[in-house]
Amino acid sequence: MKSSSNRTIQIAAALLILLVNSAHAQGPALKPEKSTLEVAIAATGPLYLPLLLAADAGYFDKRGLKVNLTVLSATASAQALLSGTVDIYQGGTATIHANVAGSDVIYIGAAVDKSTLILFGQKGITTLEGLRGKTVATTSVGAFGEIAMRKTAKEQRMEIGKDIKLLYHKGPPDALQTFVLNNADGLIVTPPQTGMAKSKGYPVIVDYYQRGLKIIGPGTGVARAFVQKNPNTLKIFLMGYLDGIKRAIDDPRAAKQVEAHYTKVTDPNMLEESYQEGKKVWNKDMTVDPDAIKLVLEQSTVAKAADLDPRRFFDNTLIKEVNRDYASKLFPGQVK
């Protein structure tokens, strides 16, 4: 009788532990101040894969938040963010540029904090010096392709605009096309276009991941006033994003299916390479590193931008709370 009673207590205790762990896995119960978020993204490649997967899998919906994703150029996204037609710009440097210009927009999270950019040359061009007096295809003005090129050129005592001319494009696919058609001598892009360039045998001049280039891209850019009015909504967004990172890491097959759907890339080898390129830079704690902002400011063409304090461009308050209450349980031992 006593043994039966002890076993009942043990079962009850085990069930209680399961319930507690389940509650932890779900994260804190938050009620969003806003039921729908309009989110602009700069691309649909592997850097954005956790967000795309989270949206498709319903990770935001389960917490009472509808997230509408729209692909917009960096310039259009920044303007939409400032006008209020977009609540979040999940992208690169546009948030920094808008802040430098006087708009009170900031990052509240960095889903990626390392660069996957690769600089290619046409066949026979294997060094940066080989691009002197030539052209390099990149994405939009002020994006990380330009930032990285300016930094690398300075290190080699060269100057963008004088020694190397950049050809700007709407996005990586357009830049790749210009390069493949031999209308540019160099190309600087991110996956999956990097995989496409490699598959065609173009030589790699600089692999910026190997160089350890710190960036924020995509980062979660918002108006500071929006943060103050909608903290729970943004926490839910960050939690859903973290769910997407977790799923993308744990379920490569599902992740690659989502990427194939959005990018229209169907080659299994390219999808695998693209997936691995994304996986190595997804930021599980999503905190913003001021050094990544400093890099952009130092390469800015705006007078005295390099003198600005990087801390004015971000606020880690919400993501630190999400890390403490949720990410630390989602990624035990990896996030505090």
Features:
336 residues, alpha/beta, D-Maltodextrin-Binding Protein, domain 2, five-stranded mixed beta sheet, 13 helices, 10 strands, 45% helix
How would you portray this structure in words?
With 336 residues, the protein is α/β, with parallel strands linked by helices. The chain has 2 domains: 195 residues, Periplasmic binding protein-like II (D-Maltodextrin-Binding Protein, domain 2, 3-Layer(aba) Sandwich); 90 residues, D-Maltodextrin-Binding Protein, domain 2 (3-Layer(aba) Sandwich), CATH 3.40.190. It contains 13 helices and 10 strands. Strands 2-1-3-10-4 form a 5-stranded mixed beta sheet, with helices on both faces. Strands 7-6-8-5-9 form a 5-stranded mixed beta sheet, with helices on both faces. Helix 5 links the parallel strand 6 and strand 7. Helix 2 packs across helix 9, helix 2 packs across helix 10 and helix 9 packs parallel to helix 13. The longest helix has 25 residues. About 4% of the residues have low confidence.
What level of helicity do the residues show?
40-55%
Task: Classify the secondary structure makeup into a structural class.
Answer: alpha/beta
- Please give the CATH architecture of the largest domain: 3-Layer(aba) Sandwich
Give the class-level CATH name of the largest domain: Alpha Beta
Strand order of the largest sheet: 2-1-3-10-4
How many distinct beta strands? Answer: 10
* Secondary-structure element series: HEHEHEHEEEHEHEHEEHHHHHH
Biggest β-sheet strands, sense, barrel: 5 strands, mixed
